[in-house]
């Protein structure tokens, strides 16, 4: 089942090649990211998906040949801000700025972490 803002999400991905999905735990962020992956995979031959779970160094050193979808879930912590995740504050905006038609980003974050971490990132991406 697609979320009510499905058209907005797919349009943003088509235009910017990167989106942020921010919401409460259990609100469907991960399911939406999965649905977007399946949608994109159907239209982009050979699209590969890389789950970024080990911080920005994993993203920076990834050698996956495009087209690639980078799926970044809860980089600042699953339920609360984790101090070890602070490197994302400086690294996520440049990563999103590198997005293009064959280098796509879906970023999911818990809204509990948003106020302490994502405000500066959101400002830099708009």
What's the quick description here?
With 126 residues, the protein is α/β, with parallel strands linked by helices. The protein is 45% helix and 20% strand.
Count of strand segments: 4
If you average the pLDDT, what whole number results?
A: 82
What portion of residues belong to β-strands?
Answer: 15-25%
User: Architecture in CATH?
Assistant: 3-Layer(aba) Sandwich
Strand order across the largest sheet: 1-4-3-2
Which structural class do the helices and strands define?
alpha/beta
Find the CATH superfamily: P-loop containing nucleotide triphosphate hydrolases
Shape: globular
Structure annotation, total helices:
5
Low-confidence stretches: none
Give me the Rg, rounded.
14 Å
3D architecture notes:
With 126 residues, this protein is α/β, with parallel strands linked by helices. Helix content is 45%, strand content 20%. Helix 4 packs across helix 5. The termini are far apart.
Which keywords apply here?
single chain, 126 residues, alpha/beta, Rossmann fold, 4-stranded parallel sheet, 5 helices, 4 strands, 20% strand
Show the helix and strand layout.
Elements: H1 6-16, E1 18-23, H2 29-43, E2 48-52, H3 56-61, E3 68-73, H4 88-97, E4 103-110, H5 111-125
Parallel strand pairs: 1-4, 2-3, 3-4
Helix pairs in contact: 4-5
């Amino acid at each position: 089942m697609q979320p009510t803002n499905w058209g907005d999400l797919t349009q943003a991905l088509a235009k910017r090649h990167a989106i942020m999905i921010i919401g409460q735990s259990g609100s469907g962020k991960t399911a939406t990211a999965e649905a977007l992956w399946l949608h994109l995979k159907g239209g982009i031959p050979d699209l590969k998906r890389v789950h970024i779970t080990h911080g920005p160094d994993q993203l920076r050193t990834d050698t996956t040949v495009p087209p690639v979808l980078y799926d970044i879930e809860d980089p600042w912590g699953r339920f609360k801000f984790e101090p070890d995740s602070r490197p994302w504050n400086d690294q996520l905006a440049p990563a999103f700025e590198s997005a293009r038609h064959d280098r796509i980003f879906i970023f999911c974050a818990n809204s509990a972490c948003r106020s302490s971490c994502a405000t500066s990132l959101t400002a830099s991406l708009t």
